[in-house]
Design the sequence.
């Protein structure tokens, strides 16, 4: 378990192992105004962040990010959020394609491998 300081209210809060990094506490996460403040801070600090990076590093759900962009409360337009989501989808599709190609190559290499020739030793006996 780790401890972080909320970037909005400055209170200390706990983060469980395995959780993504959060920059705002659960109380502020429930407050849209506080969420918008934290998002704007993060976007200003990391303007080239992907939607996954924003979610992972803030703990703010993607749907919340879209809603705040639609309301004009953060430094991103709804179109920019949509573009980030489309880029995320394209990356997932590209990764899936690469994995499928690797699996196909592995399958083909197994088929193409020559089978080992078994050595047979015959012994002749005299009668």
Sequence:
């Amino acid at each position: 378990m780790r401890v972080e300081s909320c970037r909005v209210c400055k209170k200390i809060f706990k983060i469980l192992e395995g959780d993504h990094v959060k920059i705002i506490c659960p109380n502020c996460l429930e407050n849209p105004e506080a969420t918008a403040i934290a998002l704007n801070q993060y976007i200003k600090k990391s303007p080239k962040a992907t939607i996954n990076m924003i979610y992972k590093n803030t703990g703010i759900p993607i749907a919340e990010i879209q809603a705040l962009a639609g309301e004009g409360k953060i430094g991103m337009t709804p179109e920019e959020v949509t573009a980030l989501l489309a880029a995320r989808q394209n990356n997932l599709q590209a990764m899936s394609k690469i994995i499928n190609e690797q699996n196909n190559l592995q399958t083909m290499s197994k088929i193409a491998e020559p089978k080992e020739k078994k050595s047979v030793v015959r012994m002749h006996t005299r009668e």
About this structure: DSSP finds five helices and two strands in the chain. The CA atoms of residues 22 and 58 lie 5 Å apart. Residues 2-109 form one domain.
